Amino acid sequence: MATNNKRQRELAKQKHERQRARRVAEEKKRRRQQIIAGVLIGALVILTTGGFLIGQLFS
Hints:
Blueprint (H helix, E strand, L loop, with lengths): L1 H56 L2
């Protein structure tokens, strides 16, 4: 009986570690995507504003 409980605890511990590793990987991926999106939006705003200002200067 004790062996069965020990095995169940070990399996539960392994499952918890797998889930934790998966969550960490997903969070890392989500953070990377947020950074990329922020950089792209920032570049778009800068280019749009710059294009507008240049258009105003030469019109």
